[in-house]
Amino acid sequence: MSVNTTIGTAVQAVSVLTGWGPGIEALPADAARAAAGRSVIALERPALEGERFRRATRECLLGVAAVDALLRASRIPREVVRGSTTALIYVTGGAYGASNHAWVAADTARRGGSVSGTLHFPYTAPSVMSGEVAIEFGLTGPYGILIGGAAAAVDGLWQATRLLETGQCERALVLTVETFEECAELYARGRWLVGRPLVEAAACALLVPGARRTRYDAPRAPSALETLARARAGETLACAPLIALALARAAGAGDSIGVTGEWRGRRAGLHWH
Amino acid sequence: MRRRAEPVSLIAAGAVTPFGPDLDAFWSGLITGSDGISMIERFPVDDLRVGRGGEIKKLRALPGTRRVGCRATQLLFAAAEDLLARAPIAAEPERIAVVLGTALGGVGELERALTPRGRFRHAAGALYDSPAHALARRLGARGPVLTVGAACAAGATAMGNGADLLRAGVVDVVVAGGYDALCRFVMRGFDALRSLTRESVRPFDRRRSGLLLGEAAALVMMVRDEDARGTRLGRLLGHGSASDGSHIAAPDANGRGLELAIVSALDEAGLTAADVEFVSAHGTGTPLNDRVEAGVLQRVLGRRAAEVPVNSIKASVGHTMGAAAALEAVMCLLAGREGVVPYTMGLEEPDPACQLDHVIGSCRIVRPRVSLSTSLGFGGCNAALVLEAADS
């Protein structure tokens, strides 16, 4: 599988929040060593004000914080992205796990006669995560919501380029969020599926029309950038390709960059050339 | 400016629904006015306000699936069996993609994982993309495996995403569609939201009081138009999606996102509302959804709103969530092929605020060539498909 496009796109900006801190500057040189035996490096619940966020889950707020960080760092006013000309692509491997876990636990307690949890059921849906972001930033354009790890994030980046190339939007936000803390015990049981340490993250990339064409393919081996992102950040599932993009841009890669990502034995790649 | 997209051929479809184990049972259930709603028996519902839904009572035992415990995966395998019996996949494994929409993934496995006897395979199965990967393995597909989590609009978005993979030349065959299994997780959720009705589901009826959930899987086999050989079910002409950006669980009061999705799908199809001959509405039977949706259809169709047949099948099989849009897309194509539009069960007294050309009381003998199918989901997801039935 290898597909070249004929109309150009570009990555205008990338934001990264991880359990190590804000930005790629916070990433250690060696995540495994820095974790010092901790299985999960957690991100705190962002302190966003407003009644609307009272019920929102931590993962929703992390998504809002990642988009906000991107706009602030790039000095892009919110008005620029508001409306139907901005697409929102959301990708996660398991950020819905916390709310799902809480809902099941509350139901179990309820049937046992205890008081149920206060989680509002719609927040168990992955689409509500991107829905909160859409509400906060007034995004009413096309959406994409993909569930999966790093390969799915590459698929999401490709979908964003397709939306731009076919004129369905003028810019596309690709947002990834991963949380692990609430489901750490479950992830411990599925150790064959995910690496260590599990590092919570939220990342966002803004794609716009540009000069570079893309190639979407299925490489057999990880790129050096994929390996570097994993070594420095740890296991961030869907956030890994966006962290790799941020690392490449910081290293002066310019517009000619490529990312790869693997999940469940499938690797996808997207290259701007 | 959006460009018109190449149509994509839908070679065949397969389904498992509360009506039975295949597409034939689904279609005959719809046109005979069967009721797929029953008391749920597979898990406890005694403490819920409403314990009815479109439960599939019996699944065929398929070879090689004895150890498949995940209900959602079982539904997908059953639909795939039906699909493959109608059309074998003819492509190299790397050129086959699986693109599935779901609202719940394998969340039933999470319920099992959190019991004292839960095992690691339950935990891994709880990830929403597990059923899609299981289906890809069963089909021998080694191309992209995408799980679309756009709630109850996911089936439509998955078909749109699948069409894009074909148009871009990424793969040669896409098995796309949607699925969701009933489980306590979702029954309790909708029960808590007071969205479930204790009465009959009555889409667009003035007495409508809520929805009932159902379970199903529906799959279509898609190829590029020029690669289609022999008979086909129809074509996907256009897909559109839009976020409401207004509320996490209720549609935008003016239906702006749905309207944008419809306009976008028609644009992609290179058509206008004047070309639409039939509308398969989301039509959940909830007071707000139906009013908003009817308003959007009235605006989009204009004066033709009084003459374009509109139906909803959610009173027949329940709201099958991630499967709903795929099932409804297939229904559109079958209606065009068979020359019959199934009627909206439960609709007897149309709400004056929902005035459309509803198909009421009995099926309508009409052969719609171009259909519009609409879907809405949690998070403000709106999707629309424009479909063309094959010549009968």
Q: Can you walk me through this structure?
A:
The complex is a heterodimer of chains A (273) and B (392). Chain A has 273 residues and is an alpha/beta fold. Chain A has a single domain, classed as Thiolase/Chalcone synthase (Peroxisomal Thiolase, Chain A, domain 1, 3-Layer(aba) Sandwich), CATH 3.40.47. Chain A is 35% helix and 24% strand. Chain A contains nine helices and twelve strands. In chain A, strands 3-2-9-7-5-6 form a six-stranded mixed β-sheet, sandwiched between helices. A four-stranded antiparallel β-sheet of chain A has the order 1-10-12-11. The radius of gyration of chain A is 18 Å and the shape is globular. Chain A starts with a strand and ends with a strand. The model of chain A has no long low-confidence stretch (mean pLDDT 93). By secondary structure, chain B is an alpha/beta fold. Chain B contains eleven helices and 13 strands. In chain B, the strands form two sheets. Chain B has an eleven-stranded mixed β-sheet, sandwiched between helices. In chain B, α9 (287-301) links the parallel β9 (278-280) and β10. In chain B, α8 (256-269) packs across α9. The two termini of chain B are 35 Å apart. In chain B, 66% of the residues are buried. The model of chain B has no long low-confidence stretch (mean pLDDT 96).
User: How many domains, in number, for the residues of chain A?
Assistant: 1
Q: Would you list the SSEs of chain A in sequence order as H and E?
A: EEEHEHHEHHEHEHEEEHHEE
* Widest sheet, order of strands of chain A: 3-2-9-7-5-6
Overall pLDDT score of chain B: 96
CATH homology superfamily of chain A: Thiolase/Chalcone synthase
- Which structural class is indicated by helix and strand composition of chain A? alpha/beta
Uncertain stretches of chain A: none
Amount of beta strand of chain A: 15-25%
What is the general shape of chain A? globular
- How would the global form of chain B be characterised? globular
Largest sheet of chain A: 6 strands, mixed
How many distinct beta strands of chain B?
Answer: 13
Helix content of chain A: 25-40%
Q: What is the gyration radius of chain B calculated from CA atoms?
A: 19 Å
Order of SSEs of chain B? EHEEHEHHHEHEHEEHEHEHHEEE
